[in-house]
Specification:
This protein is an alpha/beta fold and 297 residues long. The chain has two domains: 164 residues, Rossmann fold (3-Layer(aba) Sandwich); 127 residues, N-(1-d-carboxylethyl)-l-norvaline Dehydrogenase, domain 2 (Orthogonal Bundle), CATH 1.10.1040. It contains 13 helices and nine strands. It has a six-stranded parallel beta sheet, sandwiched between helices. Strands 7-8-9 form a three-stranded mixed beta sheet. Strand 8, helix 7 and strand 9 form a beta-alpha-beta unit. The protein is elongated and about 65 Å long. 48% of the residues are buried. Bound molecules: NADP nicotinamide-adenine-dinucleotide phosphate. The site of NADP nicotinamide-adenine-dinucleotide phosphate has 27 residues, from helix 1, helix 4 and helix 11. Keywords: NAD, Oxidoreductase.
């Protein structure tokens, strides 16, 4: 084992984190479920590729998981040749996947039982922030704050220590629920305007643009409309809204807003827009209303 850093999961976020760490001079070991992606990135960055999460954990002291959801995280940790299928003595496992608090507790116990240190470390920010080292990393571990001070973690962005798991996972879902509900609310407002003959663009420009909500419309700009490219896919945003709902109901709370946001994103995904950028839920709902009105006229 050396002081190398293993990155497991090389999608939009994992590959951006790998690029950032490689640019800062760290020695990387890469694994991805679809091996061709790992090979291409390793060639670009001069990194090593391994055939399984377990081989990555054998090779490196620091293991970072950046996969899509609870199921993928569980698979990487304890599926065939998973990270924790052999002892993890001397290893620290950072999980950057946005997961449910319930999963974070399970993941912590899997890694701890194997003798490793588990750190939940979901990130706020997008792949560009990862490339620039300006993510906000919400960090939590039963091993205490020191494990969140690892230098390479600070090279990825600002680290905020929140205590023991699953607090950081809960904070990440609370953060995502904040901005996803804004986008969904905006989409429903666009749909309302469209239904009564006022285009969403005109409503945004001539009404919202004259109020404090101008900042939100300007922040998202063209991203409010489906345009075939995503930095954070709508399907994953829907997963996060669903996880926020589950976390709230686990706490005995209603989660009505989270449920509504999740159902809008699942409609978007079902209609073939799951790989669109998450803010385009607003334009998607406006288009649904516009099409309905056109059919009625
Ligand atoms: N993109 C963002 O702006 C952003 C921001 C903050 C947090 N996040 C969170 O970061 C995580 C990754 O997001 P992303 O945008 O990088 O997603 P992504 O581009 O869709 O990549 C998903 C990654 O997960 C892997 N994966 C999926 N299912 C798997 C399984 N069963 N076993 C092993 N690997 C599996 C994929 O492997 P394949 O290549 O084989 O499909 C891929 O490497 C998510 O939890 C997301 O919510 C994303």
């Amino acid at each position: 084992m050396t002081g190398c850093i293993a990155i497991l999961g090389l999608g939009r976020m994992g590959s951006a984190m790998a690029r950032r760490l490689a640019a800062r001079g760290y020695s990387l070991v890469l694994w991805n479920r679809t091996p061709s992606k790992a090979r291409a990135l390793a060639e670009e960055l001069g990194a090593e590729v391994v055939a399984s999460p377990r081989e990555a954990a054998d090779a490196c002291e620091f293991v970072h998981i950046v996969v899509s959801d609870d199921e993928a995280s569980l698979e990487v940790l304890s599926g065939g040749n998973g990270v924790a299928t052999k002892p993890l003595t001397g290893r620290t496992v950072f999980n950057h996947t946005t997961v449910t608090p319930r999963h974070s507790i399970v993941a912590d116990s899997i890694v701890s039982r194997a003798g490793g240190v588990y750190v939940e470390a979901p990130v706020a920010g997008n792949p560009r922030n990862a490339l620039e080292g300006s993510l906000v990393i919400l960090c939590g571990s039963r091993a205490g704050e020191d494990v969140c001070s690892a230098k390479h973690l600070h090279d990825l962005g600002e680290v905020v220590y929140l205590g023991e798991p699953p607090r950081a996972s809960a904070a990440k879902l609370a953060f995502n629920l904040s901005f996803l509900s804004i986008v969904a609310g905006l989409g429903e407002a666009f749909a309302l305007a469209e239904s009564y003959g006022l285009s969403a663009e005109r409503f945004a420009r001539e009404v919202l643009g004259r109020t404090w909500l101008k900042a939100i419309v300007e922040r998202y700009g063209e991203r409010l409309w489906p345009r075939g490219k995503a930095s954070f896919a709508a399907a994953l945003a829907g997963k996060d809204a669903r996880y926020a709902f589950e976390a709230l109901t686990d706490a005995g709370l209603p989660g009505s807003v989270a449920a509504a946001v999740a159902s809008y994103y699942s409609l978007m995904t079902l209609m073939g827009y799951g790989e669109e950028d998450y803010p385009s839920l607003a334009g998607f709902l406006a288009n649904l209303a516009g099409n309905k009105r056109n059919q009625q006229n």
